[in-house]
Amino acid sequence: PKSTRTKGPLKILQVNLNHWEAAQDLLAQTVKELKVDAVIIPDQHRNISGSAWVTDSTHKLAAIWAHVMREVAKAWDTAMHRRRKGNRHLPVYWWSEDINKLRAKSLRARRQVQRAREKPCFSQLEVVFKEIRSNLRKTIGDSKKRCWIELIEEVNNDPWGRPYKVVMSKLNGYQQPTYPDQLERIVKVLFPTQEPFEYHVEHEEKEMIPPITHKELMQACMRVGNSKAPGMHHIPNIALKTAIQTALQMFLDMYNRCLAEGIFPERWKRQRLALLPKGSKPPDDPSSWRPLCMLDTAGEILERVLQSRVEAAIGNSLEDNQYGSRKGRSTIDAINQVVNTSKVAIAGTRWKGGAKEYCLLAALDVRNAFNSAK
């Protein structure tokens, strides 16, 4: 192996595995002992957490990316602790301070009854406990009715407020599949294996690609939502966008090197998979899950830059009836186009030379269309 040491504490290791899968496992232990930041290999057999495993042959790009993401993660962990999953539950919407006091009083009365068994005061304490418990149940029932009416009224005034949070808390209580065999079966069905596709472009002469400007990079960052789920690095988008604004030139150098050498790092192609249930279908059925794949935001920003350039080059050459992947157009516009076309077709009469026509709407539903397309 060849080790390259750059300025500062950054360590980069380049190794040729000779297509030996077990060699990567042995290399992982060496990387852990030497505390290597980035590993450059010709082919990667499996994802290993920790260091940045890069299959690109460009040393500088690997070094820049490993250094950038390490510093961003370190800064974010220092400023904000990572959120940990736990069993902490928020109070229900109908809970109140009066109910809390009555519940504490009821628990105290119940303990007194339990400790007074076979004592002369047991009957008297039991009557007091039942009275307090009855008041608690009545207070809870009244609070539920009153708060339910308030929730219904809040839906019209604030659709994203407390009613929305109550509903989402019910929907987010599902359990994702955790068994390896079940996960492997679901992934194989949802993501069919495709044959490798090699796309070669022959250029008569090497064209000079214009470098990304500060304006292009900042516009691409603005199109990335702050609250969108991050990718494999788990760094929030707001943290990465802040880092880009702080060290703009460093990120420009990284993205421009990707353009100049025609490289899209393998690390940006990896996705963090989340499975969402579809209704009440059986969990063993792969079609019962809707996959969501979160990509690294750094790669998404480069895609945004390229998308803006492609849109500028195409201009108004697209078909007017195309609504997908176009600015200022949505599914609502497509639905309105279909409805308006049908209204015009069936308007008027069909007798005595009328303009009324026949209208046919053909809908095609392809199962798992996006991941199965070839």
TrEMBL record:
Sequence ranges assigned to domain Reverse transcriptase in this UniProt record: 283-372
UniProt cross-references to InterPro entries, sorted A to Z: DNA/RNA_pol_sf (IPR043502), RT_dom (IPR000477)
Top-rank taxon: Eukaryota
Listed GO biological process terms: DNA biosynthetic process
Pfam families hit by this protein: RVT_1 (PF00078)
Bilayer-spanning residue ranges: none
SUPFAM superfamilies associated with the record: DNA/RNA polymerases (SSF56672)
UniProt name for this protein: Reverse transcriptase domain-containing protein
The organism of origin for this protein: Bracon brevicornis
Lineage, broadest ranks: Eukaryota, Metazoa, Ecdysozoa, Arthropoda, Hexapoda
